[in-house]
Amino acid sequence: MSKAQTEPTARPGLSLRTRLSLLTPLFLVAAWFGGKALVRGHVDGLIQGSVDHALPAFSLQDRSGASWTRESVLGKPLVLHFLRSRCGSCDVEAPDYRRFESLANELGAQVLHVFTDRVLDFPPELTEKTIANKNFKAPVLLADAAFVDAFHSAKWSNVTPVTYVADAKGTIRYALRGGQAADALVAAVRSVQGK
């Protein structure tokens, strides 16, 4: 028997241990992104689940003390803008919302900004500071868990910004997740008006 036949040949490449140590981080990263995609899909489903449903019954006060109910917003398109403190996307879209607020009266639409800070147990001082920095002209409501649950679940109150656009009869026609441009908001309102 020749020497070449009796000795095992060395396999070129990486050892099993090295291959596993390289594949493990890749697997963990893939699992993390996959998990995020599943959660995002679930939350998007909750948000989109409001479309073509009537606005829920609600009664909230804005910061000036005025009461807002489902009945008080019927008769014109409604833009409900859910946001919170410590939300980078909310900060980015704020100038577009201020621009949209200036157009809302011309469009015959009502804008209500809905802060989810109370549901998230953020300190009131932080909420006040955030609201002041946003410099919104439209009413600002401080949502409770029941109000957020009626739309997309209080347990996902940290998922912001989310915008709901309802028609004059109070049926939600659009559920928009993420930052919105003023032009897109104008288009959504015109769409619910049939224009």
Could you explain the architecture of this structure?
The structure is a single chain. This protein is of the alpha/beta class and 195 residues long. It has one domain (49-192): Glutaredoxin (3-Layer(aba) Sandwich), CATH 3.40.30. The protein is 45% helix and 16% strand. It has helices at 3-6, 16-48, 70-73, 88-107, 124-134, 145-149, 182-192; strands at 59-61, 67-69, 78-83, 110-115, 140-142, 162-166, 172-177. A 5-stranded mixed sheet has the order 5-4-3-6-7, sandwiched between helices. The longest helix has 33 residues, at 16-48. The mean pLDDT is 87.
Task: State the domain count.
Answer: 1
Strand element count: 7
Uncertain runs are none
Order of strands in the sheet with most strands: 5-4-3-6-7
CATH T-level topology: Glutaredoxin
Distance between the termini: 90 Å
Shape: elongated
The helix tally amounts to 7
The structural class is alpha/beta
SSE topology sketch:
Blueprint: H1 3-6, H2 16-48, E1 59-61, E2 67-69, H3 70-73, E3 78-83, H4 88-107, E4 110-115, H5 124-134, E5 140-142, H6 145-149, E6 162-166, E7 172-177, H7 182-192
Parallel strand pairs: 3-4, 4-5
Antiparallel strand pairs: 1-2, 3-6, 6-7
Helix pairs in contact: 4-7
